């Protein structure tokens, strides 16, 4: 019994990653493609660790929880209250980002709130260890994480970071908005104009970068995200997974619970709640949120937290004005 316990503890500890299959070939690619020095990369991977806790974490995603339990983690009084403080602290920046990118302030706040509790929980794993572990010892998504490891090495070179000191989520997501390295390189912006793009510690850059990310992935200014739907179970027919016009949904007994002026396609989603099923018609902007994190639970949590924040803030349409414009 003692020997089995000792072996389990040993396997749970980080171990050298240098011998993982694929690293020599990866080094070759980084040398030829990006002109890294081979000796530097060899030494880097000799210091890098394979971390079993990373494999354990990614193998047990939060979305296996039932919807009410998942939602309660993100849409609650604490996250609403902290979100209001964050909103008030960065009010002008959020107004500017909404004007520039078309993404409502509360959506940007909610994304940051769901991701890291407004920057408080940005990750405890070594980014280099996490990405190396997943790139070379998680076959299901090895190609994705190998690409992110490549981008991480490029990012640290561009930013002048010590790659061993940067912390992230178990999946290698970085900073206040939890950008993957490729997103950091492609969508992060210097929103406070200090000649430094800092998503690790700077909420202003994080706010602008979230807006920029969502806009680039197709956020449509002024368009809806989701609306509760009434469903006539007897009349409903057809494929519920396809995106269809509201008129088409109405023909099958599915109608928005409130009047909504929108002719663009909507998808019907259902969420299991305490007293049965809750139905939502979701639009393009909902899909865009899933491109930040590929989960309907995630996107609905962001939307509902944003809705709660907006209601708590009492934001009225008159406040949605261009920077510098007066009432």
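^ structure tokens above, recovered residues below v
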């Amino acid at each position: 019994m003692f020997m089995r316990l000792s072996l389990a503890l040993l396997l749970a500890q980080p171990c050298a990653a240098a011998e993982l299959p694929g690293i020599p070939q990866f080094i070759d690619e980084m040398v030829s493609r990006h002109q890294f020095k081979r000796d530097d990369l060899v030494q880097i991977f000799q210091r890098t660790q394979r971390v079993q806790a990373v494999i354990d974490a990614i193998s047990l995603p939060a979305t296996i929880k039932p919807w009410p339990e998942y939602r309660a983690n993100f849409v609650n009084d604490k996250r609403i209250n902290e979100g209001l403080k964050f909103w008030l602290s960065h009010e002008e920046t959020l107004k500017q980002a909404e004007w520039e990118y078309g993404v409502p302030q509360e959506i940007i706040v909610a994304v940051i709130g769901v991701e890291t509790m407004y920057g408080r929980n940005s990750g405890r794993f070594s980014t280099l260890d996490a990405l190396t572990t997943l790139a070379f010892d998680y076959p299901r998504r090895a190609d994705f994480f190998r690409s992110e490891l490549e981008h991480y090495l490029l990012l640290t070179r561009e930013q002048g970071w010590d790659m061993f000191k940067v912390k992230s989520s178990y999946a290698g997501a970085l900073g206040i908005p939890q950008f993957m390295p490729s997103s950091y390189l492609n969508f992060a912006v210097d929103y406070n104009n200090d000649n430094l793009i800092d998503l690790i510690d700077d909420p202003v850059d994080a706010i602008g970068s979230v807006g920029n990310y969502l806009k680039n992935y197709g956020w449509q200014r002024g368009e809806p995200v989701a609306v509760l739907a009434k469903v006539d179970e007897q009349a409903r027919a057809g494929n519920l997974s396809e995106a269809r016009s509201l008129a088409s949904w109405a023909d099958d007994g599915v109608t928005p619970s409130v009047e909504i002026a929108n002719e663009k396609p909507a998808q019907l989603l259902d969420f299991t709640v305490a007293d049965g099923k809750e139905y939502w018609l979701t639009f393009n902007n909902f899909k865009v949120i899933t491109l930040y994190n590929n989960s309907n639970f995630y996107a609905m949590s962001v939307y509902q937290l944003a809705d709660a924040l907006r209601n708590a803030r009492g934001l009225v349409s008159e406040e949605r004005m261009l920077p510098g414009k007066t009432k």
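Residues 142-159 form the longest helix (18 residues).
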